[in-house]
Amino acid sequence: MDNTAAGILVGALIDGAVADPRSWHPVAGFGTAASALERRVYAPSRLRGTAFAALCVGAAAGAGVVLGRFGVLGTAAATWIALGGTSLTAVGEAMADALESGDVEAARALVPSLCGRDPDALDEAGICRAAVESIAENTSDAAVAPLLAAAVGGAPGVLAYRAINTLDAMVGYRTERYREFGWASARLDDAANYLPARLTGVLVAVCGGGRPAVRAWRNDADRHPSPNAGVAEASFAGALGVRLGGETAYRGYVEQRPVLGEGADPGVADLRAAVRLSRRVQIAATVTAAVLAFSRGRSGRRACA
């Protein structure tokens, strides 16, 4: 089997077995280093922000080049570092357990592990909606996109992708501080997730969403302020038969999001269904990425023959 394809499969298996460590995760280390660099170079300038993003992403890709020299094990390590799908669904399950037992405070405490919403502004219904939307978006960002990046770019590609996505989570906001400095990071993230988000929509339909997922994607995705999150969230909404969107409170500001899908607001049962759907999509994405990597490797060997 092609080294990249094998590395993707091994990395996905490791993520499924051990998920993200609670401490000393390489992505957390990258975030710490990026924060230190931001403090040194920050200015409300797109030029400064572009240089910041280029340095960070270039460093991550360079680390991937080093890992890639170790063949299957190096690609597996890079893939595992970039994946977050198992942790995503574990948090979703824990949140559903807490809500089912009536412990809204415990569920609220888990919100920051999924998204940047203001937990204090969320009741049980708001927690469910935030969780389903975040599981949908992060199924693309934390699972499908890294796998596709690994298939196309190997270890350098998958670590560059994870750097881009992490920078967007750090500085890609429309706040006064980051509107200019975070512009390049946000645009890079939009570009890096364009194809993965649409693959996510396809896989949601294939993995159980069917025509309702496609219909919600077609009718509602473009209403979302993100060109990529809208695809994932709308397809999940259609697949689950729920309505997403509405008033969305972050720390310091509130957004009015468009309605995606049809039906009732999501409840605990829908949150559990979102977790199950995410897992199916992640498995399908792993197989798709491995097949793509194998096909690319085989085509490359033929071209060299």
UniProtKB/TrEMBL annotation:
GO terms for molecular function: ABC-type vitamin B12 transporter activity; threonine-phosphate decarboxylase activity. It holds the Pfam family CobD_Cbib. It is a multi-pass membrane protein. The keyword Cytoplasm does not apply. One of its GO terms (biological process) is cobalamin biosynthetic process. It is found in: Cell membrane. GO terms for cellular component: plasma membrane. Converts cobyric acid to cobinamide by the addition of aminopropanol on the F carboxylic group. This is Cobalamin biosynthesis protein CobD. It comes from Gordonia crocea. The lineage of its organism: Bacteria, Bacillati, Actinomycetota, Actinomycetes, Mycobacteriales.
